[in-house]
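Why does residue order matter? Because the sequence determines the fold. Keep that principle in mind as you read this record.
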Amino acid sequence: MKTILDTSHGWPRDFSWAEDGLSCRFIPVNGGLGEGLALLEICSGPLRLSILPGRGMGIWKGSCDGFPLGWESPVQGPVHPCRVELERRGGLGWLDGFDELLCRCGLAFNGPPGKDATGYPLTLHGRIANLPASSLRILHDKTTHSLIVEGVVFESSVFDSRLKLTTTYSLASGGRVLTLHDLVENGSSQPAEMQLLYHLNVGRPFLEMGATLHLPIKAMSPQTTQAAEAIEGWQTYQGPNAGFKEEVYLFHLRENALGKGQALLAHPAGKLGVAVRFPLRDLPCFTVWKQTGALEDAFVTGLEPATGFPNFKDFERDKGRVVRLAPGANWEASWEIEFVTQSERICQIKAEVEALSGSETIHQKPHKEFTPHGH
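Structure:
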């Protein structure tokens, strides 16, 4: 394993590297809301992704075989965290920086804003997406012909939680699969609570009218009565629709032989798709966010593996879906995102999902075990 970059020796102003069909480079963001950030672009050949060390190690945008990855947010990003006021609009300020392909929601809390049972104020989707990495390492594994990026982000404060996130991205030469491994450690002498939801956001051209979702469902519930009204069409996407109100569906999925859940978003023409595979032991919940609004507003869907559902923390705690870490303890998970550009591969993944199908519990209305809107 060869170390290409280690920021313990200082963060470089300029950096680029290429070998073994792989490459990476820093690209400074000049001007606008992103002034002061830098993109770390990694490339396997067919797959190119821009990582944001300054925004919780999220992934801004990318491309696969020339097809753009990400979505067109009204936010003109990427946005430097210093320009995001999390408390704005009653705790909804997180949305002012939201335009990534992948961002993390957590770590101490996730879900809508409010005050929890202790009176502690919570803002939308937590702090981790707006915290910069403290250190970064880039490595080249010549044995597996892989590029590895490792970043460390601290979410900590005096008289509050002390959580450390170590994120590792792996990308093989010539590959179209991104492997993620996250390790969350409790550095406090006291127990800590942890929540983590991966907000993977897909827009055009992978998302178009008639795109379909393929999931091995064990149980499903709409999150709200509005989503329940559209439940017959939960698997299929509409085209851009001005004034569309978001629909959210909550799932428990069946596992494959490796203990993983999987999901596929397939383009209506059957050539493009995005697939995820994740360990249900560590990420037992899956959320689908449908936001097919006008192109000027937000035409996007979220595929979201998580430790729980995006409800208020008190509710998730009562349902046993908040991770509790003892002093010095940790949580970790590895999962994959595959970007598909061949119809044969789409058919293979659909067959994998169908092979896991069995009896399904589909709640037509919000169910109390999934959502506080349930009965």
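The chain has one domain: 2-362.
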